């Protein structure tokens, strides 16, 4: 009697297993990863260089995570990855992949190259920007075939400015490096300062690149001698001189920006909300810490996979419209669900504020309210965006 | 003679009974302290703190309450504590990073989710033998065995599925897609309905076990709390089938659900980041672990109110009550 019952139960289970297996044909989802090798030149501080495969390993983990899920649904994800120094070579490869049928692209490239890819690939492709923090791409030079998983500079500096405001560190000395990226980072911060009511007491440009007879440590106290300030903001994206600003300022003040207390998309010290598990999976795969670009590439791949899982389709139009719909949500290990802003394609996300050994805070800070979504207090909100391409 | 012997026996039985703790005790795992706090529910105070392995999370009792199983996640083991002597008597081969587990009604087979390895490990607690390891989705977490013993279910947090395992063959037989980051699963007493919470999705899926289809999805709305902060984790059902309680994480509330018509009827304010829960013996009280405030709230089930909060260790995670 009991045996019969068990046999019946097993038969039923077996039947449902067969059904599950037959209910879907295998779906293949190829994703192309494009990286441009950029030589940023020599730096004074080269203790912790950015890994060469930053971004790629994040995409690889995204594929691995997605295939574990895909195994149960007969969805298979494959990564086609390419790295080139030359822009036109990279664009050629992207077009070849497009002709071969790839529709989803993760681009870890500078702004100019991204724009070349946007034009070359056209509306039947979806590009995830996991390499450029450029504000312009989110504010007026938007493209309808592009989503941004890397936070913009505006998001990063808004995250910093909210923290300064919450800490009542209102008066800021601003130091800017000589590169275009440094100037862009400062411009973003100036916007944030205005937005959140911070006062910039002085602006200084770091121009000591030609004078190497004196050390940075000796230059900096003099360089930072000015009206009283609560905090020093430094814009040095390459990490050339910024590391030497800490503890060398004329007044003993905290340093924030690209060095010191830094706003990031991701960092090893992020461990809450299950992030410890993501960190340990990444560590196992790449044998190093997960960087912001790794996180952005991971989120890009996971976005595609999430849409494929939910729609049970690999069709470009279905996947794209699902990602851009209000049904889409990504569990990104940042304590709340992430999705894309419909006005500029930016992935909404909390921004951790870190120093190299610990998480200090995470923005949005409490009390910075927004009528729709507090995450939209970081970066460009709908009224600030003028994206005719949308 | 016979009378005297039985009297002696009776006296020694009484002595034995009084020397054992008679009170109801709640055992609470403290994730960041590597300890178990013991709360006497009568005096509502912590009466003992026991050192255990690293990062204790899921805990549960054997049927006779003589043993407490502890997922010591960072020690990569499941510890077996002798409840009477408060000592660890055995470590079970759990697979890496055990987080949650469930004991089969046979009181022997432990189903363990290995968070880092995308595996469910089944261990025989008597022989310490690994009976099977089953591939599941990324970050397996919630684990439950149906009261009739036929099915084990596991949730995977990044794959967002409920995985159904046949306990007679140890094979994965089906998967049900649920909302983002499923954390916890709980069977109804008759094994017919499964409740699965989704932390980031903000929902609880109520699933028909026979068809493995979701037939109701619960959402929660608390005035003054952003929907994104409503993150369901622990679920407990009353034995009389009346209520389901859902711990809402950083929303700092427990939702009360009518388990007959699946409507949310109340929200109870508790401590900060509420995760797991257990009832006292007669189910008049519900205890919750509040990770950030580092305490346990006691809810009066009749009044639907938290009546007491008890400080325990850092980041309390799981709670189980041992009856008198």
UniProtKB/TrEMBL annotation, chain A:
Keywords: Signal. The keyword Transmembrane does not apply. This is Branched-chain amino acid ABC transporter substrate-binding protein. The keyword Protein biosynthesis does not apply. Residues 1-24 form the signal peptide. It comes from the Bacteria. It comes from Neptunomonas marina.
UniProtKB/TrEMBL annotation, chain B:
Keywords: Signal. The keyword Signal applies. Residues 1-23 form the signal peptide. InterPro entries: Host-pathogen_enzymatic-act, Lactonase_7-beta_prop, N2O_reductase_N, PQQ_b_propeller, WD40/YVTN_repeat-like_dom_sf, YVTN_b-propeller_repeat. It comes from the Bacteria. It holds the Pfam family Cytochrom_D1. PANTHER family: DIHYDRO-HEME D1 DEHYDROGENASE, PROTEIN NIRF. NCBIfam families: beta_rpt_yvtn, PQQ_ABC_repeats. This is YVTN family beta-propeller repeat protein. It comes from Neptunomonas marina.
